[in-house]
Amino acid sequence: MEGEFNIVSLSKIRVRYEETDQMGYVYYGNYFTWLEVGRTGLFRDIGMPYTMLEKRGLRLPVTDAQCRYRSSARYDDIITVRTVIVKLTPARIQFNYQLESEAGNVMAYGSTTHAFVDRTGKPMNMSKKDPDLWNLMLDRLKEKGV
Length: 146
What we know:
Layout: E1 8-14, H1 30-45, H2 50-55, E2 62-69, E3 78-88, E4 92-100, E5 106-115, H3 126-129, H4 131-143
Antiparallel strand pairs: 1-3, 2-5, 3-4, 4-5
């Protein structure tokens, strides 16, 4: 099974002082770190933490990353990262993210695309290279509401 999914994972982040710049706003590069928090949280939510994937020899390098900023976060704000898998194939996985303030205002939108590669960095077709892991991933996604 390939395609789009409707699983949403929510991760909460409190902005640390070190994440802000001299103007008191969150440095733009930190938003990408928060996307990673959301992505790893989603994998954890479906019972497949990155550590498990890595033990199986799977790596997920980023092949594309985007972030559109709407408003700035500041020190001590609480941000919710809403993460969803929007596309899954045996070779790639794509996530969309929405970062929201406590008041529900959208602060940023993001997306990342990742290739499935082995330990050496060689691209792989998960359904052929590790069909057990591929089927486990599909089963876990179905269990969560696909």
